[in-house]
Specification:
14 helices
């Protein structure tokens, strides 16, 4: 005896293979066996709707509504089938009920507008769609497409769609590009506090040992104290006394080198300035 799970699995396999008739047969048998289970009737009606048998799907949706009146998918499915069959009054009533069950108001307004168009009331459908479109901030693509469709009939210009913040974003973020050998691909990476390499997902050992091609050609032979990447760190061990005097040390009071001494002439003293005969030659 087949269980409900086995029936659902077999029907899903038929739908994946494109055998909608086989799936409909399985769901029909399940509906007869489990008459009070609405899930099989919902799926059976969906398959019938895909096969284009909208009137049969409508009856199955209505049975589900009698079993589970709170099911939005049954009410919305019945409204769509009624619209496809040309039953405008039933579609309008069912779309109004779907709004109370939680349907998007823009989608329901579009369905009611199509039902009004079936009855030849295009201007009334335009007014309802336009009012809801403006009230929603001009951001509904469903209502904008519907008004674009009926605008040649009513002879009115379609209001502009406010596309701000309506960009389609990808569902899944793209993969992060990483250089091989440096970043760790293991899932057991630890994030200890104080370790930037681990927090960034970098393998510290690989970062120390990996050499960059072309560095030795640019910097020559690697010094004894250089890193594997060719960076000379020998100057980090020098003390302050070994470093050559800089301009700042001369300002602080240290003696200047001979090359740094001033070559400007010395200014005359106060006695030389008072002697009026200082510029005369010595006659002795």
């Amino acid at each position: 005896m087949a269980t409900p799970e086995q029936v659902l699995a077999d029907a899903r396999r038929c739908m994946v293979e494109g055998d909608l008739e086989g799936a409909a047969k399985l769901f029909k048998q399940a509906c007869k066996r489990w008459q009070k289970e609405p899930e099989f009737r919902i799926r059976y009606a969906d398959v019938l709707e895909r096969l284009g048998r909208h009137s049969q799907a409508y009856r199955q949706y209505k049975r589900v509504m009698r079993i589970s009146p709170e099911r939005l998918d049954a009410c919305a499915g019945a409204a769509g089938c009624a619209l496809a069959c040309g039953w405008a009054r039933d579609a309008t009533r069912l779309y109004g009920r779907s709004v109370g069950l939680g349907m998007n108001i823009d989608i329901a307004t579009k369905g009611i507008g199509r039902a009004l168009c079936l009855r030849g009331r295009h201007h009334e459908a335009w007014e309802k769609a336009n009012a809801q479109f403006i009230e929603g901030g001009r951001k509904s693509r469903e209502l904008h497409g519907f008004m674009t469709e009926i605008s040649p009939i009513v002879g009115l210009r379609v209001p502009d769609l406010d596309e701000f913040d309506l960009a389609d974003l990808p569902d899944e973020p793209g993969t992060v590009r990483r250089d091989p050998g440096v970043y760790s691909e293991s899932d057991d990476a630890s994030f200890a506090s104080g370790s930037l390499e681990e927090m960034a997902g970098i393998d510290e050992e690989a970062l120390r040992t990996q050499s960059t091609p072309g560095v030795e050609e640019l910097l020559g032979e690697t010094a004894a104290s250089a890193t594997p990447l060719g960076i000379d760190l020998s100057a980090l061990g020098e003390t302050l006394s070994d470093a050559p005097p800089t301009e700042s040390s001369a300002v602080s009071g240290a003696p200047l080198q001979s090359s740094e001494r001033s070559t400007e002439p010395k200014a005359p003293s106060s006695e030389e300035e008072d002697d009026p005969f200082a510029d005369f030659p010595d006659l002795d």
